[in-house]
């Protein structure tokens, strides 16, 4: 009895590689239609039939356990951003359990981001997507819904209208805790170095800062927008410290900007925390490597990424996938915060 015809034999007759045969016979992209037809003709001539193992692999390919994540950030900046490194590691911890994969792309704008998701879904490269950096009336949500892509957003459900599964942290509560702590220490003039004002979580934090400051009778706080980079954080800090009404405490929207702010305080000859208190956000290892160590709103970003991934797989596998909050960031006081010192006399 003749042995089963192999893919390699089909490849030899068609004059292509074994990989091309696999793509063609499993209806995967990567070969031209002319080549695909030649391969199928060769397979039919030789009487090739797929093995049961091949059928199983093909079926699995149609149910890929690959998550898509597209981020609109410069590659150099992302490499320095502790938040995303931790968030991605949380996603990977879930993928490791199921031998899944992550497709990651960095793009220049939202239109390119939608195009990447569309191409991945068309080519059956992903089972679903996680959206980050939500904005108000985010166009990506409707675009992915029209494509039928299972989607989980990492952001407040108030920004989605409840139309898509979401995981989020309570940024308002976290800001309130930070401001109340500083007010308890005696600070009345608090500023914030924030992120892109178009982003939903930036806007939520800005509103929360103004509301709690008014409630506590503090001076109206100033929020300076940035792109989250260390350079922008340093520029914003210089602007605040050079102003006539210099703050006695500054809250930063990420850790890298807080580290930059600490260096700027030294440039101005200010001692932290005697002359200026600083609070970072996310509490990565950076906060514990500075001198003094940075007080921070401690956030389990790794767990946040893992929650987003688990929620997406629940959605993909048609299990109940309700929106769910991640633990709220909590204050970790360290050496960069203290009661304000006496203001220098003016002449």
UniProtKB/TrEMBL annotation:
For the HTH lacI-type domain, which residue ranges apply?
Answer: 5-59
Q: What is this protein called?
A: LacI family DNA-binding transcriptional regulator
Q: Which UniProt keywords apply?
A: DNA-binding, Transcription, Transcription regulation
This entry's Gene Ontology molecular function terms read:
DNA binding
Which PROSITE patterns does the protein's record reference? Answer: HTH_LACI_1, HTH_LACI_2
Keyword Transcription appears in the UniProt entry: yes
- The answer to whether UniProt assigns keyword Metal-binding to this entry is no
Sorted alphabetically, which InterPro entries does this protein's record hold?
HTH_LacI, LacI/GalR-like_sensor, Lambda_DNA-bd_dom_sf, Peripla_BP_I
Q: Which SUPFAM superfamilies match?
A: lambda repressor-like DNA-binding domains, Periplasmic binding protein-like I
The record ties this protein, via SMART domains, to: HTH_LACI (SM00354)
Q: Which Pfam families match?
A: LacI (PF00356), Peripla_BP_3 (PF13377)
Task: Please give the superkingdom of this protein's source.
Answer: Bacteria
Where is region (Disordered) located? 321-347
């Amino acid at each position: 009895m003749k042995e089963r015809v192999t893919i390699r034999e089909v490849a030899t007759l068609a004059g292509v590689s074994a990989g091309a045969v696999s793509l063609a016979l499993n209806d995967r992209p990567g070969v031209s239609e002319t080549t695909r037809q030649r391969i199928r003709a060769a397979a039919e001539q030789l009487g090739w039939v797929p093995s049961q193992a091949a059928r199983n692999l093909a079926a699995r390919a149609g149910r890929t356990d690959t998550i898509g994540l597209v981020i609109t950030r410069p590659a150099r900046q992302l490499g320095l951003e502790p938040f995303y490194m931790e968030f991605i590691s949380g996603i990977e911890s879930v993928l490791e359990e199921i031998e899944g994969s992550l497709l990651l792309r960095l793009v220049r704008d939202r239109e390119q981001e939608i195009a990447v998701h569309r191409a991945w879904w068309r080519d059956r490269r992903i089972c679903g997507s996680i959206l980050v950096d939500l904005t108000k009336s985010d166009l990506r949500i409707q675009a992915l819904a029209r494509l039928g892509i299972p989607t989980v957003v990492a952001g407040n459900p108030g920004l989605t209208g409840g139309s898509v599964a979401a995981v989020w942290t309570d940024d308002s509560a976290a800001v309130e805790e930070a401001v109340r702590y500083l007010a308890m220490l005696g600070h009345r003039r608090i500023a914030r170095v924030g992120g892109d004002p178009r982003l939903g979580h930036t806007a939520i934090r800005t509103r929360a800062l103004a509301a709690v400051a008014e409630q506590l009778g503090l001076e109206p706080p100033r929020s300076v927008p940035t792109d989250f980079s260390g350079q922008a954080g340093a520029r914003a800090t210089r602007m605040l410290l050079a102003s006539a009404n210099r703050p006695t405490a500054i809250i930063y929207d990420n850790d890298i900007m807080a580290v930059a702010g600490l260096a700027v305080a030294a440039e101005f000859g200010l001692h932290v925390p005697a002359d200026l208190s600083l609070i970072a956000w996310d509490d990565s290892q950076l906060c514990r490597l500075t001198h003094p160590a940075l007080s921070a709103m401690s956030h389990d970003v790794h767990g946040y990424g893992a929650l987003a991934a688990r929620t997406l797989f629940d959605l993909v596998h048609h299990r109940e996938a309700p929106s769910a909050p991640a633990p709220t960031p909590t204050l970790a006081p360290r050496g960069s915060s203290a009661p304000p010192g006496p203001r220098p006399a003016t002449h």
